[in-house]
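batch job 7 of whatever, protein = Coproporphyrinogen-III oxidase
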Amino acid sequence: MNHTVSWDPLLIQRYNRPGPRYTSYPTAVEFVPLDNDILERQAYAERNPERPLSLYLHIPFCRHVCYYCGCNKIVTKDISRAAPYLQYLKDEIRRKHALLGGNQGGRIARVEQLHLGGGTPTFLSDEQLQDLVSFLRETFEFSTSEDADYSIEIDPRELRPGTLTLLRQLGFNRLSYGVQDLQPEVQQAVNRLQPEEMIREVMAKARVLGFRSINIDLIYGLPNQTRDSFDQTLDTMIELSPDRLSVFNYAHLPERFKPQRRIHAEDLPSAQEKLTILGHCIQRLTAAGYQYIGMDHFARPDDELALAQTAGKLHRNFQGYTTHGDCDLLGFGVSSISQIGDYYLQNQVSMDGYTAALDKTQLPTNKYCKVTRDDQIRRRVISELLCHLHVDFSAIDAEFQINSRDYLLPSLRRLDPMVNDGLVIITGSGVAIRDKGQLLVRNACMAFDEYIYQHEQQRFSKAI
């Protein structure tokens, strides 16, 4: 795979339109409301029991509101709210575990991946974290393989002195720190104050404890950011040398996300400045030795993501880029999403809806989507483009027993403008994204998306 990213701001501006991030296909906007859990039970009944498991637990609580945030969260300083939520969470886990055959003495597939997200997972006390992980390990069998992936999202402001040590003892081997930006004026504008020294301290501690992989999240396009100010943040990031970096585009959608109304639009960088920040960021990180994985993600060449991409084994799902795409993903907690075989299943997005369903002894399912054969084909094509920048027609033919070039012909024709602009190449053997098309791979994916033209583009963030 060619990892060289070509920068052409004029082309990027021309193609910079809203589109999905394709953590699933069909995307979440296609999920259909449910008023019972019958279809989720059916998904478990049809599940291939040989498939390993990936568990995602959503901890929605945050002590502070970050103005840029569009996540499903509950902002509160009342730590007593965690205890009843954990009881509901355990109830949901028991119910789903039973559907896997756990109450019938049958063999349960191993857990190869665990992720705690939010919200702020360390809103939970150390005792609650220990109790929750102990419960999971008593309920499921966890893989002891070296490539097992047990991760947690960390707000550096919400770490107690012994929490990182505890997390390592509990078996977590990967961390993701939310940093976003290190400049005080930017932090002030988004209500996320965390001194650089705090970041240095938690990074150093994680290294000493032996976490296998450390990710840092950054955001470009925040208020008061400039190329020069973000460059200072990059100086520190390159010095700290995290294994992975996620550099996300801030999408200002105050009509959808109430906290964003506290951000003054006039303080945001212009579209041109925002592009300049991104271009400089890519230049700096690749010069520092990071491999551009795609969709805002960078990794050191020896990181598992980069190695999987080089080997053609990278996947993408609701966890983002992953090396465990062969797992069934079980989501637990308010708003979490499961992917079981050809079913996508989303939990209730409100706490009241979530707890009410469990009180009625139902699974807290809110929406679902069952993937069709056409969806399967297009999902494979989109995944290959996002992960490996090319699609091999013969591989699609063999997997689905079709003539993929004929089957996908209308989608291939939609790529004509990108072909003419030198962003994509189509040959008799497949489709490939060229160097200057890498940043616009989402646009290429949209050509294969049979749903996107049914929706207003405002439902998605822009590609860049």
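notes: The mean pLDDT is 93.
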